[in-house]
Amino acid sequence: MEPETVDALKADAERFLDPDRDPIVPLYRRWKALWETTYKLVDECPTGNWDAPELSEAEIEMYKIEGKMITLVPVSIEGLVARADYLWLKEGPSARVGTEKWCEELTRIEYLPIRRIRHGAALMAGVSLSEVPGAN
User: Fold this and answer.
1) Distance of CA 4 to the CA centre of its chain
2) CA geometry: angle at 36 spanning 86 and 106, to 5°?
3) DSSP symbol at 72
4) Cα–Cα distance between 24 and 81 in angstroms, integer?
5) 3-state secondary structure 103-117
6) 41-47 LR contacts (CB < 8 Å, sep 24+)
7) 8 A C-beta contact, residue 75 and residue 21
8) Per-residue pLDDT averaged across 84-103, rounded?
9) At 66, is the pLDDT very low, low, confident or very high (cuts 50, 70, 90)?
10) d(CA 39, CA 49)
11) CA-CA-CA-CA dihedral for 40, 46, 47, 48, to nearest 10
């Protein structure tokens, strides 16, 4: 193998393993924090109408980040985990995590591909599956 080829492969491997070089990772972290905040605000909304101003602000910011994030291609294992978790949260089971309904939804065939991608990405990244609900 040519030295240039080996150097190129090494550079690709280093980039793939470096989450700091993946633009998805910081966007995803911010998006996930906002997603968790919106979940909490919905639960705590005193009127039950989900009309808290903080909720609207968080959702607007979340959609802005989402618009940027979905145009990017993951270039690290952590970026792949982030993208898979994002897809799971957006397109996966809709019931509250840990409920009986959620456990039933986990068995639906349409969720299996993204569930397995998410699971595999977490394993490759060395992320504990307990940190990735529904992965196993």
Assistant:
1) 35
2) 55
3) S
4) 10
5) HHHHCCHHHHHHHHH
6) none
7) yes
8) 89
9) very high
10) 13
11) 40
CB 69 within 8 A of CB 84: no
Q: According to the model, what pLDDT value does residue 56 have?
A: 85
Q: What is the dihedral of CA 107, 108, 113, 115, to 10 degrees?
A: -40
Q: What is the pLDDT of residue 17?
A: 57
Average pLDDT over residues 49-77: 87
- Contact indicator for 118, 84 with CB cutoff of 8 Å: yes
DSSP result, 18-29:
-GGG-THHHHHH
Measured distance CA(132)–CA(73) in Å, rounded? 21
One-letter identity of residue 59:
E
What is the percent of the chain where pLDDT is above 70? 76
Find the length of the chain: 136
- Give the span between the Cα atoms of 67 and 27, in whole angstroms: 10
7 vs 99: which has the higher pLDDT:
99
* pLDDT tens by residue, 118-132: 889 888 888 876 665
In the numeric block, the tokens 């504990």 are attached to 128
Cα–Cα distance for residue pair 93/96, rounded to 1 Å: 8
Average pLDDT over residues 50-68: 87
